[in-house]
Structure formats: structure tokens, C-alpha cells
Amino acid sequence: MISFQDLNGIQVELSFVKESFPIKTMHVLVLAKYKNTWLLTKHPRRGIEFPGGKVEKNETLVEAAIRETLEETNVLIGELEWIAEYMVHDELPFCKAIFVANVVQIHEGLTSHETEGVVWLTNDEFINCSALSFHMKDAGMQAIIEKVKEYESKWKY
Q1: Which PANTHER family match (predicted)?
Q2: Other CB atoms within 10 A of residue 121 CB
Q3: Which of 13, 30, 95, 103 is the most buried (most CB within 10 A)?
Q4: How many folded domains does the chain comprise?
Q5: What is the rounded CA–CA span in Å between residue 14 and residue 143?
Q6: 12-21: average pLDDT
């Protein structure tokens, strides 16, 4: 378990073991690559980040991850694999499941209603991006990116 404060000063715990936290996981985050670029989205207030969001009523974590990614990037993902979860100790604490996924289909020309759309960044562009949202810059994200390196061979390019 990795414990750290995010850039807003909120305590966060990250675990690579399922069901490590006492509350139900009701948020998702998706990491995917396609043609050696990261699949990201541009949130209008926070900046560039991995797609994700809240689980809706009667929806599984995997279904939420697929839906949120499609809504935010117009990219259909598949072959999802759970890699981690984290708990944010905010006023209303919440847990988020983290998945790696393959890009199945890119819907060109569609517009996103939740974000400013898809952003594709190479590793170098990602590392040097000044427009990343705050949670993309913390110690937890660094640990997640390191863990994802184990899965890179599973991504189809």
C-alpha cells in the first residue's frame, strides 16, 4: 500500500490488491495506449487526464469504465484488466478502480459532451505535458505508471 497526499493536500491510499478499502469502489480510471500514444481526455477545468468517472446505478466497474471512456474520448475500449484501486480521504471519501484496456475502435468526428475530447500523447509528450490535471502529477500516478509498464506488452497497436 502506498500512502501520499495529492497536490490539493488530501490523503490518498493506493493498493495493487483488490478490495483493500472499507468502502465500495464507485469510480473508475482507464489507462490505454494505441500506436504508442496514451489515450487521454481534456477536462474543461482540471486539464488533461486519463478518462474515468462514476459508476451509475446497476452498472459494473467494467461497464462504467467502457462507458466513461466512450463518453469522454469517443474511443471504444475492450479487454479491460483491473490493476489497482485507490481511496481518497476527502470530506466524502471515495474509492476508484484503475484498469488498463485495449483500444477497440476510434469514432472519428463524434463530439464529446463531457470533456473537450480525446488527447493522444507519446511517452515524452506525456512526461513533459504542462497541462496535466493535478492528480496526474502526484506520487500515486507515478506508481501507477510504473505498474502499467508490466502490461504494455498486452496492448495492441
Answers
A1: ADP-RIBOSE PYROPHOSPHATASE, DIHYDRONEOPTERIN TRIPHOSPHATE DIPHOSPHATASE
A2: 18
A3: 30
A4: 1
A5: 9
A6: 94
